[in-house]
Design goal:
The structure holds 2 protein chains of 2 kinds.
Chain A lengths: L5 E9 L17 E5 L4 E8 L8 H22 L3 E2 L5 E3 L22 H23 L2 E11 H4 L11 H4 L4 H37 L2 E4 L9 E12 L3 H14 L3 E9 L16
Antiparallel strand pairs in A: 1-3, 1-4, 1-5, 2-3, 6-8, 6-9, 7-8
Helix pairs in contact in A: 5-6
Chain B lengths: L9 H30 L4 H25 L2 H23 L1 H9 L1
Helix pairs in contact in B: 1-2, 1-3
Classes of the chains: A alpha+beta, B mainly alpha.
C-alpha cells in the first residue's frame, strides 16, 4: 500500500514569484506557491499528510495563530489573497481499480496527484477567483468591538439613582439585597438603552466608511460591559485612519464607551465560502 | 452547553442542573417582586417579608452548593444557559448570519 500525500492550502492569491519566500506555516513548515498555469493565480501551500491536524485546544489555537501569521505575511507582500480556513487539505487521488477511467496526467490505475487535483480545480474556477482577488485588492479587514462600561454609566445617569443610600438604612437584610438588585438592574437597563442608541449611530457611521460590514461574535467578554456592536469591516487601506477617527469621536463624546479596534488583517470574513469548500476529511 | 455526566458524577450533574434551574426561577421571582414593589401594590411589611423569603432561598441555594461542591458547575451551567439565550437573541437580530449558518 503506497502512502498518500497531500497539500495543505493556506490561501489563493495572484501569482507573485517569491511572495512565499522565507514564510513558514504550521509547526515551522516552509510554504511555497503552486502556480496555476495560464491563470495568473497561485495557491499558498506546503506538503502534508492527508490526515487533518488534530490536537487539544491550545495546540489548535497555536496552529491557527501560525496559519494566520503566515497568511498575513504573504498578504502584506501581495496586497490581495483569499484565505482558506484551518485544515484545508487536498490529497492525492486514491489509486483507481478501473484503469479505463483515468483522466489528466495520471497513468492508468494511478490517481491524480494532489498538485494536479488542486491545479485542475483552480483552473476551472480561475475567472471567479481572479474576480474576487481584484475586488479585495487594496482592502483589509478591521475588527471593531464597542461596549458600554456599566461602572461608568452609573455616575451620571439619573435612572440609576433610584435607590439612594438613605433608603437602605433600617431595612431588613432581604430588603437591602433586593434594593441592591434593583440598582443593578437599573444600571443594566440604562446601559442597554445607551447601547441601543450608540449601536444605530456607530453602525451608520462605520457603514459610511466601510465597503462591507459583517456582524461578528465578540472575542472579548468583560462582566461589567454591555455589548453595543461587534463587527468585521472591509475597508480600503487608505480609509483605515478614517475608521479610527470615527471611533475616536465616538469615544470622546461617550466616556462610558469602550472600543477595541483590531487589524488590519487579510479579509478573512469576506472571502467567499465556495473557495473553502475544497476540504478533505 | 457542556454537561458531562458519568455514573460517578450523576448525582452532582443532576443536582447542578436542578439548582441552576431553581436559580433561574429565583431570578424571575426577584424581577417580579421588584415590579410589584415599584408598582406600589405591596405594603412595606409585605415587601420586607417577600424580600426576606427571597434572601432565605438564596442562602439555602448557597448552602446546597457549598455542601455538595457544585458551586462552579452551577456557575458553568448558568453561564451556558446565558450563552444559549445570547445566541438566540443574536440570531434574531442578525438574520444575515443566521442565513449563512443555514446555508453552511
Amino acid at each position: 500500500m503506497t502512502e498518500r500525500t497531500a497539500l495543505y492550502v493556506y490561501a489563493l492569491l495572484p501569482h507573485r514569484p517569491g511572495a512565499a519566500d522565507g514564510v513558514t506555516g504550521l509547526d515551522g513548515r516552509p510554504l511555497r506557491l503552486l502556480p496555476v498555469p495560464g491563470t495568473g493565480i497561485a495557491a499558498l501551500v506546503h506538503d502534508a499528510s492527508p490526515a487533518p491536524f488534530q490536537g487539544d485546544d491550545d495546540q489548535v489555537r497555536r496552529w491557527v495563530g501560525e496559519q494566520s501569521q503566515a497568511v498575513t505575511t504573504v498578504w502584506e507582500r501581495t496586497g490581495s489573497l483569499l484565505p482558506m480556513t484551518f485544515n484545508v487539505l487536498v490529497a492525492d487521488e486514491p489509486p483507481s481499480s478501473d484503469s479505463g477511467s483515468g483522466s489528466g496526467s495520471g497513468s492508468p490505475g494511478k490517481g491524480r496527484s494532489a498538485e494536479q487535483r488542486l491545479t485542475d480545480w483552480l483552473t476551472g474556477r480561475a475567472p471567479e477567483i481572479t474576480a474576487q482577488l481584484e475586488e479585495l485588492a487594496g482592502r483589509c479587514e478591521l475588527r471593531v468591538e464597542i461596549t458600554v462600561d456599566r461602572t461608568a454609566v452609573t455616575a451620571d445617569d439619573p435612572r440609576t439613582m433610584r435607590v439612594p443610600e438613605a433608603q437602605l438604612a433600617g431595612r431588613s437584610a432581604g430588603m437591602r439585597r433586593l434594593l441592591a438588585k434593583q440598582r443593578e438592574q437599573d444600571v443594566r437597563n440604562a446601559a442597554g438603552q445607551l447601547a441601543d442608541t450608540l449601536h444605530a449611530e456607530a453602525r451608520h457611521r462605520l457603514l459610511s466608511v466601510a465597503e462591507d460590514f459583517r456582524d461578528r461574535g465578540r472575542a472579548h467578554r468583560a462582566p461589567d460591559e454591555t455589548d453595543v456592536l461587534s463587527a468585521a469591516l472591509l475597508v480600503r487601506n487608505e480609509d483605515i485612519d478614517t475608521v479610527g477617527t470615527v471611533l475616536s469621536e465616538l469615544q470622546s463624546r461617550q466616556p462610558a464607551v469602550r472600543i477595541r479596534f483590531l487589524g488590519p488583517w487579510p479579509p478573512f470574513s469576506f472571502t467567499d465560502d465556495r473557495h473553502s469548500a475544497y476540504e478533505e476529511r | 452547553m457542556p454537561l458531562t455526566v458519568d455514573e460517578k458524577s450523576l448525582k452532582h450533574g443532576v443536582l447542578s442542573l436542578v439548582v441552576t434551574l431553581v436559580e433561574v426561577i429565583q431570578e424571575a421571582l426577584e424581577r417580579q417582586a421588584l415590579r410589584r414593589m415599584n408598582g406600589g401594590d405591596l405594603t412595606m411589611e409585605e415587601m420586607e417579608r417577600l424580600a426576606d423569603a427571597l434572601l432565605e432561598l438564596d442562602e439555602a441555594l448557597e448552602e446546597i452548593k457549598d455542601d455538595h461542591g457544585i458551586t462552579s458547575s452551577v456557575a458553568d451551567l448558568h453561564r451556558g444557559l446565558d450563552e444559549v439565550v445570547d445566541d438566540v437573541v443574536d440570531k434574531l437580530i442578525n438574520p444575515r448570519r443566521w442565513a449563512e449558518e443555514a446555508r453552511g
